[in-house]
Specification:
The longest helix has 33 residues, at 3-35. With 261 residues, this protein is α+β, with helices and mostly antiparallel strands. A five-stranded mixed sheet has the order 1-7-4-3-2. A two-stranded antiparallel ribbon has the order 5-6. 51% of the residues lie in helices and 17% in strands. The chain starts with a helix and ends with a strand. Strand 3 (193-199) and strand 4 (202-211) form a beta hairpin.
């Protein structure tokens, strides 16, 4: 195999992988917008029909990819409208649960899809929260999961306790959390306890939190400069409902880190 032919195979593989990724994202959003009854769903349907017609007309993969990307692009551009509609429906679901009514399978799938979106969206800014959300999707008999990572030692509210022996409740700084180093970790661990013990020439920090979603608790998020356009709500009560229905599986999350004395 020549270097040129190898390079062509690599490029072909990458193009196929990219096309597959675009198709997966498109189909996921198609299903999710259907479950939440968002108007953008109808645009996705039209885009899908156009892509299918192009396929049967023997159009090349590039044309189909561009067709799908146009649909995804319009979805992104219409985000303010989509979020307003999503917020209304999420609020309606929460009220329905609060009034003692059950959600149907379609609505549950929409909420489940929302958690998947949050899990993927948190990978870079909030990796610990993303990891914990991911494992919430799978049951475990012991209901305890252990992680080994020392990144959380960088949080100022954790550092204050590293020289204190015994189990301590971490008092996360709630003021200006978004502008300090606590926010990333508080998003994953609040509330939690921290216990520091000696292990030879090192110390071991054990952070423990019960990872679950709370009943009837809502967090409002928005870009401060464009408030109203990109405002969205996270109704923890919806995820709590999925926990209650057995779709999500709360667990005790234990994070262990070692550091020098």
């Amino acid at each position: 195999m020549t270097l040129k032919s190898f390079g062509q195979k690599v490029v072909s593989f990458l193009k196929t992988a990219l096309f597959s990724f675009i198709c997966i994202v498109f189909l996921f959003l198609l299903i999710w917008t259907f479950c939440y009854s968002l108007h953008i769903f109808y645009l996705f349907v039209l885009t899908l029909i156009a892509a299918i017609v192009a396929f049967f007309k023997k159009q090349n993969r590039k044309f189909i990819t561009i067709t799908l990307l146009i649909g995804l692009g319009i979805f992104i551009l219409s985000t303010p409208y989509n979020l307003k509609q999503y917020n209304r429906h999420a609020e309606a679901f929460q009220k329905q649960i609060n009034n003692g009514y059950h959600l149907n399978f379609k609505e549950k799938c929409g909420i489940y899809g929302t958690l998947l979106i949050i899990t993927v969206g948190d990978i870079i800014p909030f990796p610990e929260a993303s990891i914990q959300n991911f494992y919430l999707l799978f049951p475990k008999k012991s209901k305890t999961r252990i992680f080994y990572d020392d990144d959380y030692l960088a949080a100022p509210d954790i550092q204050r306790l590293l020289n204190t022996k015994g189990k301590q409740q971490v008092a996360w700084n709630k003021w200006g959390e978004r502008f300090n180093q606590n926010f990333r970790f508080a998003a994953a661990y609040d509330p939690c306890t921290l216990e520091v013990t000696d292990e030879g020439n090192q110390k071991k920090a054990t952070l423990v939190t019960y990872f679950h979603y709370r009943k009837n608790y809502t967090t409002h998020n928005a870009n401060h400069y464009l408030y109203g356009l990109f405002a969205f709500r996270i109704d923890e009560g919806l995820f709590w409902y999925l926990q209650h229905e057995g779709w999500l599986h709360p667990y005790t999350s234990v994070w262990i880190a070692k550091f020098d004395k």
